[in-house]
Structure formats: C-alpha cells, structure tokens
Amino acid sequence: MTNVSAEHPHIHDDALHRRGLMFILSSPSGAGKTTIARRLLEHDRHICMSVSVTTRPMRPGEVDGKDYHFVDQKTFDRMVEEGHFLEWARVFDHSYGTPKSQIKAGLKAGQDFIFDIDWQGTQQLYQKAETDVVRVFLLPPSLDELRRRLTARATDSDDVIGSRMARAQAEISHWDGYDYVVVNDDIEVCFGKVVQILAAERLKRARQTGLIGFVRELTKAED
Which pairs from 150-158 meet CB under 8 Å and 24+ separation? Predict the structure, then answer.
C-alpha cells in the first residue's frame, strides 16, 4: 500500500515558481471520484476544488459558494452567452459550468484545482487549456461492483440506479480520452496512485515558470 503523508514536501515549497494545473477526476457515478477528491483536498494544502455553477436544487448540508454556486436556468444561460464558463454541460436535467475568471487567476498564481466533471466537460476544458489540464479517469473493478455501490447508497430508486448504470457504461467508453486510467478496486491503492500522478505532473518542465531564470543564473559566466 502506498504511504502518503500530508508532511511530504510540495513543489510550492521550493524556490522555483510554477504554473498551477487543472486536475480532472472523472468516473462513472459510484466509482469513487468524490471520495478520492475529498481525500486529496484533506491531504494536500496546495490544491482546492473548482466550485461549479449549477442549476440543480441545493441539497441538505450544502453551502452556496462552497459546494456549488447555485443559480436559476435563466442566469446560467446568460452566463453561457456572455462567455463566463471554461466548460459547461447538461447532466440529468440540470446545467453545470466552470467559471473562467477565478481559475485563470489561480493558475497564474500557482494554484492547483480539482475538477469533478464528466467526459464532455473534460473535452471542453482540454480544448481550451490543453497544457494546464491533467486528465484522470477512475474505473470500477466491475459493473456488478458498481451496481452494488450505487445500491448501497440507498438514496436512489431502482429506475435512477438503472439510468446511472446505463450512463456509466456510456462514460466508460470514453476512457481513452484521458491521460491516466486507474482502477478503483482498493481505495487506499487508488488514492496513492492519484497522489503520485499529481506529484509527477507538478514536476513537468513546462509548468516550471521560474526555471528559465534559475538556469540562466546557473549558466552565467563568472566575472
């Protein structure tokens, strides 16, 4: 089992500045992306959740501005027309979108963001910001296990579970549109792999915006 600790050094703690990244976690409903995202947020103080705008009703315990920015459909449609979203999609009769301004400013400052979005949103995001995007897809170990997990929640009717299973199989067919694919059979092992992916992506040369100046100093001829 991979041992991960919140005390491990982060690239932000180094002298070199780097550009932030958009870390996409996608999976069929019930395959674990929400659990993995929550653990990553607890483990790593240099990454935060991208807060989406949505037209779906607020659920008990949710906070406007923290879990989602809740708006009506008319407001959402106006935001689409005015180009406020990096990506947006309609899922289960409700609209979801990623606000552009806060993400762009954060990336420039070196802030990383987690995105819990589907393959359509992932495609849109990648088309608009390819070099800033890291795409991770989580797979269930089997469809039987996925159905068991959805049923164990005891929050959805059989009809809803059936529609989620059909949607899951459609989403799984887009696995090859991702940079990394991880099977979530064991949550600890899966989380360890996701942490390793994030660490490696942070070290990519293209994201080290402070590297050019640093190397120039190293290669200067001595007086």
Answer: 150/29, 150/30, 153/30
